Amino acid sequence: MSQLRSVVAGRPDASLALASLCAYERLQGGVLLTPLLPSAHLAAASGAASVMLKMENEQYTGSFKCRGAVNKQCCTTQRGSLVVVGEDCVEAETAACQQAQQSGLVYVSPYNDLEVRAGAGQIKLYSACCISLLSCTSSIMREPGASYSA
Q: Residue of 42, 63, 110, 149 with fewest CB within 10 Å of its CB?
């Protein structure tokens, strides 16, 4: 992990990349490790050599969004409560901002908060690690004249 930290430190998006590395470590055991599966159909349709699908639909919530929420929760001592307001996300966000302002609390944006974005963004890091592992495994398995047994 320290090698990855030094690689991302010089990038223009270094703060988000470093936060994503921290989120990756923080979320171990907090969210499901979902599979990365090849899609021959999408690869053929797009003309790409390969297309991989990260199966985040297998998370308890049915999406990747729990990664950002769990990461933010790990980074804060404040706890909130769930209140459903409005007919859409714009009404809900407006009400949440007003409530936070009136109560002296902090509003956590699901779009613009660094820890939320880092939690969601760490999936890219996880996927890259899986792809590297898959390509290493594939090249080993294709070694000419080699035989393998389980």
A: 149
User: DSSP class of residue 13?
Assistant: T
Does 107 map to a domain?
no
Confidence of residue 142 (pLDDT cuts 50, 70, 90): very low
What are the start-end ranges of the E strands in 19-145? 36-38, 52-54
Is the residue at 148 inside a domain? no
Helix count (H) and strand count (E) of the chain?
6, 2
Residue 35 has what pLDDT?
Answer: 85
| 46 has a pLDDT exceeding 90 | yes
The domain of 134 spans 2-80+112-141
Q: Is residue 57 part of a domain?
A: yes
